[in-house]
Amino acid sequence: MAIQNPVAPTPPRSAPRASDLGTPQYRRLFGAGREVTIHWLTFLITAALVLAPVIPILYQSIRNQPLYAAGGAFTLSNYTHLFTEAGFGSIILDTLLFAALTTLFALVIAVPMAILLERTRFPAARLFGQVLRWPIYISPLVLAFGWIVVYGPAGFLTTSVREAFGWVPWNLYTLPGMAFVEAVAQVPIAYLFCANALAASDSSLENAARTVGAGPFRILRSVVVPMLRPPMLYAGLLIFGTSVETLSIPLILGEPAGITLFSNFLYDQGIDSISPDYGLLGAAATFMLLTTIGLVVVQSRLLKHAQRFVSVRGKASRSHLLDIGRWKWLGFAFVGIYVVFGALLPLLALILRAFTSLLTPLVNPFSLLTLDNFKLVFAYAPYTESITNSITVALIGAVAVTVFGTLVVLVARRSDFRFARLLETTAQSPHAVPGLIVGIGFFWAFAWMPGGDAVRGTLIALIIAFGVRALPSAYGAISPATMQLGAELDNAARVAGADWWRTVSRILIRLLVPAMLASFLLIWTQMIREYAPAMFLAGSESQVIGTTAIDLWTQGETGSVAALATLQIAVTAVVAGLAGLLLRDKTAAKAEATQAVTAGTNPKELTHA
User: Fold this and answer.
1) Are 384 and 365 in the same domain?
2) Can you give the residue range of the structural domain that contains 243?
3) Exposure check for the chain: N or C terminus, fewer CB within 10 A?
């Protein structure tokens, strides 16, 4: 009989499973990780949103029937009709002249101000620098209304000057006058480009010029101004493209004077026409789209060798402000005139007009104070709805675009998605598509797609269209912050077994909250000002402040327009203030979180926190 061993042999121990170590397990869809599904969905949704307004326009331009009509055939007669349209050549020339004058006026004003405030000993430079940023939060449409209240034919200052001297040296209802009003609204953009470039550069080149005896003006002319060529070029092309597509100035200043630019030509052919020629409208929209895309291509080519002007190196020297002596007071007057007469006075006059029955220097405005303009706005339901609609679209749109833009940035910048570069290009491409084109394109897209009629004319359509326009801004606001986050954060989470989505949702997004808040404020400001796509997409119950203001202006209701503009300014200021407070707190929290991570936090705590 065999003898049994009293001690049973110990079975071989198997390798520990990931679940035993606390490593999270994830479902795999079709054999692939969930991040693959997220990457492809993000890419496909972005491509669909960007191409949705473009493809119908291109298709309509070569069809002899509206897209929603049965039948039809391919044709090029729409382009023949467009380029043989009576007066179309003068429309193109006037549009180009308007854009060129706007760009010239904006750069002539913005570049000297940036140099004075950033490179010279200038009185109250920091205060002026902050004030010059304020018009960014104000719609060019609102600023144009303010300019008409002050400098229009019956404007406050125009009447005063005419009474004193018998004539007025300006006329807003001319091509140069329209260009100057548009330029005043675009000056903050050019100023920020140039001022940021000067603030980021060191003064080593200026110090070198000073050692060989160059004076302040020689240094400014030979060193500082050449360094500004890339930002001047970028800002100039951006302003030129914006001027080509702008609708507010041509509509409220050009139409009464019989001046037709390309944007209000599209408006007249689409909105104001009793029987629109959709083929002609498609060809004209395609022409504008190709023009703006061409400007973007030219911009990228011209900035291809911008590294020749790099002035920020590894070793930076302390900046020494130039003393231009008594000339600083001339510069002070130059900046002060723009701030007071270009921005503050029109806005103050517009707000005062909202609280008066009439604004004229012939009568004391304080004797005409009234709330009737606001009562009219709140007494008529469509006007009140336009305010509510603008706030709703801006709020929901800013949140949605910020969240989706963050996801796009993380897929494009922090993943191994094979089409990451194409995704980045696609997300940034809507900045080459004018607002009118987005509105026309989505109008046809909703008419073309099954079930699109249920969306067209609703706030959902406006949120989608405004969101596509704002997507590049969200990407630009979040991408730099993402690039600042070190790759060791991702690596630490991967070591603990986290997949891409868990790393993103538990670590990266939390550290990107300050950038997301900044993006929210930027998108909110952009959407509360937006109105061009709504000219084609808004229904009777989905009007926004901009479309309602234009409608009231054409009816001669100046007081109601001023009241609407004042409410828009107030809402924007409140949201900007609250977002600024939150951003300050979240920035401090991000700094503490980053310090904790870099101090050696356990990787498992990152993924399971």
Assistant:
1) no
2) 61-309+326-370
3) N
**pLDDT score, position 207:** 62
Q: Residue 316: inside a domain, yes or no?
A: no
At 604 the pLDDT is: 41
Whether 86 and 100 share a structural domain: yes
CA distance 593 to 327: 48
pLDDT of residue 479: 87
Give the ranges where 87-170 is alpha helix by DSSP (H): 88-119, 125-131, 140-151, 156-165
Q: Which two tokens stand for residue 119?
A: 């490179």
DSSP 319: P
CA angle 170, 173, 177 (to 5 degrees): 55
Q: What separation in angstroms does the CA of 435 have from each of 79, 432, 548?
A: 22, 10, 17
* Cα→Cα distances 249→102, 139, 176, 271, 572, Å: 11, 11, 12, 17, 22
Q: Which residue has the tokens 């089409």?
A: 419
CA distance 189 to 413: 27
Structure tokens at 40: 């492809």
* Contact partners, residue 262, CB within 8 Å, separation at least 6: 91, 92, 95, 244, 284, 288
Q: What is the 3-state secondary structure (H, E, C) of 559-570?
A: HHHHHHHHHHHH
Q: Which residues contact 280 (CB under 8 A, 6 or more apart)?
A: 78, 81, 82, 85, 269
Give the C-alpha separation, 296 to 286, whole Å: 15
Distance separating alpha carbons of residues 505 and 406, to the nearest angstrom: 11
Which residues, other chains included, contact 547 with Cβ-Cβ below 8 Å and sequence gap of 6+? 386, 531, 534, 535, 538
Structure tokens that stand for 343 in this block: 């921005």
Mean pLDDT, each 10-residue run in order, the chain (609 residues)? 48 43 49 78 94 90 80 84 81 92 94 86 83 80 89 89 88 93 90 80 63 64 73 85 87 89 84 75 87 79 54 49 80 90 90 88 83 89 91 94 94 89 89 85 86 86 94 88 78 76 85 87 88 88 90 86 89 77 60 48 41
* Domain-ending residue, one of 353, 370, 387: 370
- Three-state SS annotation for 450-485: CCHHHCCECHHHHHHHHHHHHHHHHHHHHHHHHHHC
Would you state the pLDDT for residue 606? 38
The CATH number of residue 491's host domain is 1.10.3720.10
Q: Answer whether 252's CB lies under 8 Å from 553's CB.
A: yes
Domain count, the chain: 2
pLDDT at 121: 84
Q: Which residue has the tokens 């043989």?
A: 84
Q: What is the C-alpha to C-alpha distance for residues 335 and 254, in angstroms, rounded to an integer?
A: 28
User: Which letter, b or e, does each residue of 104-136 get, where b requires 16 or more Cβ atoms within 10 Å of its Cβ?
Assistant: ebbbebbbbbbbbbbbbebeebeebbebbeebe
Q: Following DSSP, what letter does each residue of 385-418 receive, concatenated?
A: HHHHHHHHHHHHHHHHHHHHHHHHHHHHHSS--T
